[in-house]
Design brief:
Elements lengths: L2 H11 L12 E4 L9 E4 L4 H9 L4 E4 L16 H11 L3 E4 L2 H4 L5 H9 L2 E8 L4 E9 L3 H10 L14 E9 L16 E13 L3 H11 L7 E5 L8 E13 H11 L6 E2 L6 E11 L4 H6 L4 E5 L14 E4 L2 H5 L2 H12 L5 E3 L12
Parallel strand pairs: 2-3, 2-15, 3-4, 12-13, 13-14
Antiparallel strand pairs: 1-4, 5-10, 6-8, 6-9, 7-8, 10-12, 11-14
Helix pairs in contact: 2-3, 6-7
């Protein structure tokens, strides 16, 4: 199987369009037209990861963090980024990153963290509101079902995680007059035609717009298709950053922090003062998630778990929530497992390996 075929399937599941503007998810380096010999999943791609890929016969590395975030003006091996790239190029290894787009999907990074904590009723903390478009297209009754089925097949009509093939239709009369250079589906040149039509309305995520329009034009009988596309501001339950969830059994603060420390193999937890209450609802965001603190407070969570919190940002909790910083690597460590499982589920007969290396650059003296 070609590397490109694997990445195309992966991007259907984890669309690149969901990444943040500052991000650099996607194929970083490599020839995706090569046959894939094996896949290695990791959190950070560093020279030692490339060496591991070589030793384990993997020519595709799928990492969470992109190795390149900004432009490179030379490639001489003067830092770990350039060394990683040179080693990958030398050994014909492709490096691909699933970063904030993997954070933003239902079942993504934060859902994996919630799973490890055993949370129930897990919901997205900050839902995206710029995802959905709606197609309204007018089609003769004779081709309504054909067009509808084609649009569903192209990815339209899905609402949430529990419903697909959703649409709405209304019946009416379409009026048009074919001019002399037209090739009308029905009617005569220079004579007004009245046609029984249906107005189909179907929603879809914005990154599927090209496929939706292609399916519409291919399966519509008119040479000039009448349609509208609207941007929707609806929040979407399956896309967004951070999650909330409930503990199966409420725990005192110290017991909860002890359990968190054990499950995530933590050396230390930095946190705000403990007010002496029971922990029931948990909010979390893997990686640098302090920007969601107000959302966590609004969600009435008892504790917010994230990383990379600066000194003065701890004050922002203001006694309304326990803010816990568990470390960047520590918060996202299970992403290696998540990437492995996503690929293995969709390519069950393919060699997918998890790295054996701990790439955390932070050490703790105790």
């Amino acid at each position: 199987m070609l590397i490109s075929q694997i990445l195309q399937k992966l991007e259907l599941l984890v669309p690149l369009s969901l990444q943040e503007s500052y991000d650099n998810a996607g194929l970083i380096t490599g020839n995706d037209s090569l046959e894939c010999t094996g896949i290695l999943t990791c959190l950070d791609c560093i020279p030692e990861i490339v060496e591991e890929a070589v030793n384990r016969n993997c020519n595709l590395i799928i990492a969470h963090h992109p190795i390149i975030f900004k432009g490179i003006k030379s490639l001489t091996g003067k830092n770990y980024i350039e060394k990683t790239l040179l080693l990958a190029i030398k050994n014909n290894i492709s490096i691909y990153a699933c970063h904030t787009n993997l954070d933003s999907i239902h079942g993504g990074v934060n859902f994996k963290i919630a799973e490890k904590l055993g949370l129930t009723d897990v919901k997205i903390l900050d839902k995206r509101e710029d995802v959905l478009l709606k197609l309204a297209v007018f089609v003769p009754e004779t081709h309504k079902e054909q067009l509808k089925n084609a649009l569903f097949l192209a990815g339209g009509g899905r609402i949430g995680n529990n419903y697909d093939e959703c649409s709405f239709e209304t019946s009416g009369l379409g009026n048009f007059r074919p001019l002399k250079n037209s090739n009308p589906y029905s009617g005569s040149i220079n004579k007004r035609q009245v046609e029984k039509e249906s107005k189909l309305e179907i929603i879809f995520p914005f990154w599927q717009k090209g496929k939706i329009l292609e399916a519409m034009l291919k399966n519509h009988p008119y040479e000039e298709v009448a349609y509208d596309i609207y941007s929707l501001s609806n929040s979407v339950n399956e896309y967004g950053i951070g999650v909330t969830g409930n503990l199966k059994q409420p725990l005192p603060e110290n017991e909860f922090l002890s359990e968190l420390k054990e499950k995530f193999n933590l050396k230390v937890i930095k946190h705000t003062a403990l007010p002496g209450k029971v922990i029931k609802k948990v909010a979390l965001c893997g990686g640098s998630g302090i920007f969601l603190l107000k959302k966590a407070i609004s969600a009435k969570a008892d504790v917010y778990i994230t990383s990379d919190v600066k000194y003065h940002e701890f004050f922002d909790a203001d006694g309304k929530i326990i803010l816990a910083d568990i470390g960047h690597y520590e918060s996202e460590q299970f992403t290696v497992e998540l990437l492995h499982d996503i690929i293995r589920e969709n390519f069950p007969n393919f060699a997918v390996l998890k790295t054996n290396l701990n790439t955390n650059p932070v050490r703790y003296f105790s």
